[in-house]
Input
Amino acid sequence: MPILFYTSIYKISQINILVFKICLCQISYVFFLSLTALLFKTDACISACSNSMINVTGVLESTDNMKRIDILAKYGHLIKHYGTGKDSYYYFRIPDKTIKGGAFRRKKKTKEEIESALCDYFIEKEKQNSIGKDTATFEQLFYEFMEHKKEKVSAGTIRRMSFDWKKYYKTNPEFIQKPYKDVTPIDIDDFLNNIVNTTEIKDKAFCNMCGILKQTFGYAVSARYISANENPYRVEVNRKKIIPTRKKASTQEVYNNSEKQLLLDEMSRRLQNNPTNTCILAIMLDFELGTRRGEILAIKNSDIKNGEIHIHRQVVEDFDISNLDSLKRIGYHAVEYTKSDAGDRYIPLTQKAQEYIKQIQRINKETGESYQDFLFVKDGYILNPNRLYTLLKDACKRCINIPVKGTHRIRKTFVSTLVNNGVPITTASRIAGHADERTTIKNYLFDTNNEEETKKAILNALGDNPESSVTTTYRNVENENVTKRDNNIILFPSNKKAENPCFTRISH
Output
């Protein structure tokens, strides 16, 4: 009995030891996996998966589904549906210069199939891009950056950047074809100095051109393609060779008083001949509001209240930006925002402005023109901004023989008129919708008088014009004082000056 007891105890001890060893082995194994994970993440994942610690298949499927959801949210609008019944199908067309024909096309019977094809395309493009990231040229990086940027800025900004790209970068293939990771600060110095030395570029154009370099490499840093320390962008050029932007003469920038009157008279004559043409009234009204072209055409009837008008939207151009090398204008649409936050403003309406607006509203009612409460409508849609310029150009060149200065010069005429008639700069800047008064002072203040009127104003200010009211008034006051002087003579001692209280010495 005792022997059996001790034998049992021994076997139990052996079992415990065995269990302990097994546990120790498991602990060691887990520790090994953790250490391996820290050193080699991929090997750790494989080891864990082999021991059924992670369901890789499920994780990959979940990641893939999330990616497909993101793709459909961003590019789902490219899918179109055509036809009805058995003949119907879904299709998409994606511009792609790497494919013969310049586009990737697919057509499927069901929505699920076309969505799958769309996702497969973008997933494959992502793989291709990731493979070639390290060897991509600066040109390829720029196009990728623009694809990212075009969702965040206006089509007008994309158009300007595309124009600068073609003008300054496409003409320097050696620079843009170089791998962007190999571009050095010296390369950028050579590129910029070559432009400065070979072209007559103004400082504003130079700044815009440099913006492409700065923003593209900034995108590379944000995308973690390069570190901030690896960003080669800098500007070291001979700035004396850059042409400074000088303020243009008033004759180029505003309609003087006589030109303005000639233009308004011509518009009135045209309105008599074509009484339903609200485009004419838009030009006349803008002389009373000083708005941007896109702002005046985006006015709705509901924006006009209590003798003032609320400017808070604008008409913008629509461009097909699928091909950045060849942008095409495809139309216009109104957006619920202005050029800047300062553009959201109220403008008091003059009596003339109110009369113009009533006339426009009456014409719309008589002709049945209507579109989403907009004031300026033609053929059931917003008035085309190009019609304003065409009308203005024709009137200036063909009828009244004055320089064509465009619709934006009407805006500058309005602001200049305000300031020239005593309105404070701060108020004029606010009415114009400028974020900074310096913009108003630098670009919008001009003399609205013609040459003869300006000369007279100078002489009047100097008191050198005998016909001026200022000089006459001064002389009348002087003569009146002379007659009163005999009765009110005040004698001061000739040997003593009147003491200036401002300079009285204070004894300490």
Summary: The CA atoms of residues 499 and 505 lie 11 Å apart.
